[in-house]
Design brief:
It contains nine helices and seven strands. The chain is of the alpha/beta class. The structure holds NADP nicotinamide-adenine-dinucleotide phosphate. The site of NADP nicotinamide-adenine-dinucleotide phosphate has 30 residues, from helix 1, helix 4 and helix 6.
């Protein structure tokens, strides 16, 4: 099986790369940080022959399309494409930082779609394939400090849902995965308290199971999913209390004004 994964240089993506290599799949790992990709390659003992790394930025429409074409040329037809690359931005000031807004939207919503389109094109030609988008529980409802990230992931969810319905009759399945907090570079950088985060060891088997079952939408962990759903139907009075008091207490503001992931 040929597996294509964006954001393979760290966190969830890197662990998914290792999982599929261990299963004997040929894996194409895409990311911008060449050193991290080289480190991933070096860390392998016996599976090196199955891994190909590609240094590419998903926000460059041409580059990502060329990378996908190269993967197909070098490894063969992509059976499973995991659209995982993403960035976040914590809005600590009352107003938005437009540079961060642009980066998050360009990566999570637009870059993911730049990746999806050439993959859908090749899968349509063959009449088979599976696409997985790593979105977020942030897509379910907007929360203060994270509204840009929420908007970008909501856009990705809608895009993936559209593809689910339109591609199903063509033999292509689409799975949207919405995780809550998982301990990775992303949550460490944004100082999300560890007790809110699931470990990668617990999260990866759940993601893999949802992929194997070809679920349309998989949201986890259960209690974080129920909490965001509850927020959606809560009266504004209670919501206001949670947003103004509880969230500030549960997620203390980082001391430095953190910009986006890459700032
Ligand atoms: N951790 C969580 O709590 C959590 C919760 C819900 C959803 N998610 C989602 O899970 C996905 C993976 O995040 P993570 O937690 O594993 O964080 P991470 O360790 O920061 O990984 C993000 C990955 O995305 C890649 N990436 C970012 N921008 C890119 C670009 N323009 N082009 C190519 N690759 C790019 C990064 O690689 P380079 O920097 O090397 O390019 C990195 O490999 C993201 O979409 C995130 O939104 C995470």
């Amino acid at each position: 099986m040929i597996v294509f994964i964006t954001g393979g240089s760290s966190g969830i993506g890197r662990r998914l790369v290792l999982h599929y290599l261990a299963r004997g799949c040929s894996v194409a790992a895409v990311a911008r940080r060449e050193a991290n990709l080289a480190d991933l390659y070096q860390s392998l003992a016996s599976d090196r022959g199955l891994l190909r790394t590609y240094c590419a930025d998903i926000t460059d429409k041409q580059i990502i399309a060329q990378t996908i074409a190269k993967v197909e040329q070098e490894l063969g037809a992509i059976d499973l494409a995991i659209i995982n690359a993403g960035v976040t931005y914590q809005q600590l000031e009352p107003n938005l930082d437009l540079e961060c807004f642009n980066e998050v939207m360009l990566t999570n919503a637009i870059g993911s779609t730049y990746t999806l389109v050439p993959i859908v094109e090749t899968m349509l030609k063959r009449g088979r394939g599976q696409i997985v988008g790593i979105s977020s529980l942030a897509a379910i409802g907007s929360i203060p400090r994270m509204s840009t990230y929420c908007a970008s992931k909501a856009a990705l969810n809608y895009q993936l849902e559209g593809f689910y319905w339109t591609l199903k009759p063509h033999g292509i399945s689409v799975t949207t995965i919405c995780p809550g907090f998982i301990e990775t570079e992303m949550t460490v950088k944004h100082q999300i308290p560890r007790h809110w985060c699931m470990t990668l060891d617990r999260a990866i088997p759940q993601i893999v199971k949802a992929i194997e079952q070809k679920q349309r939408l998989y949201c986890f962990p259960f209690w974080q999913y129920q909490f965001v759903r509850l927020l959606g139907i809560m009266p504004d009075r209670i919501k206001e209390h949670i947003f103004n008091h509880a969230i500030e207490k549960w997620f203390p503001r980082p001391p430095l004004s953190l910009r986006s992931d890459r700032a």
